[in-house]
Amino acid sequence: xxxxxxxxxxxxxxxxxxxxxxxxxxxxxxxACGKCQAKSYCGMGESAEKAIGVDLRDNxxxxxxxxxxxxxxxxxxxxxxxxxxxxxxxxxLPFLILVASLILMFYTTGNxxxxxxxxxxxxxxxxxxxxxxxxxxxxxxxxxxxxxRE
Length: 150
Prior knowledge:
This protein is α+β, with helices and mostly antiparallel strands. The protein has one domain (3-147). The protein has 5 helices and 6 strands; from the N terminus they run βββαββααααβ. The chain has helices at 39-42, 80-109, 112-121, 123-132, 134-140, and strands spanning 3-4, 8-19, 22-28, 49-55, 73-79, 144-147.
């Protein structure tokens, strides 16, 4: 079940493997997502499993890779502010680009089909830029992790 604290969003997961200073954590969507108000934005309810890489270098929590083992239950944590930024970059900004370009092209050309085509094609460069700068984004959107005491 997803837990929300005042300043962070937490999801339970299981350590799948450890590669150097990075943990690969598998997060499973749970039935509790059905009650969550943010389920339509989160993306956790869309698939059964997601894998998240958690880099333990420069980790302020003090946890080291040696503190974890494959199969261990953990809690993956993301700052609420970073969660909102991810929602903006992944959903809201592309929507705004799509709508603005659709309206602008329609008023410029008067052709609905061409306007729709240009609006959709503008999504490719946007998502291409996100993909190109994925390493920089990965440094910005840093997850942390802590063991769940059984």
